[in-house]
Amino acid sequence: MYTVYILKCDDGDLYTGCTEDIDNRLNRHSSGHVPATAGRLPVKLIAYTVFENKYKAFEFERYLKSGSGRAFIKKHFL
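-> structure tokens emitted (78 positions)
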């Protein structure tokens, strides 16, 4: 299973990622071991979606990082 997740960082910005092990990945974010969020702690999980197909998961992650995907996040999760 693959999880696409959205975090809200302390600076108000969002971080979107994809992983096979969501618990481990969130622990790594929270402990400062992910460079992209290390300086923006704490982070809060605001949404996640689980996929069986890794290609669909990465495709959805790529969409969320696009302009229309960011608009989707703002409309549905913020």
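The CA atoms of residues 47 and 76 lie 10 Å apart.
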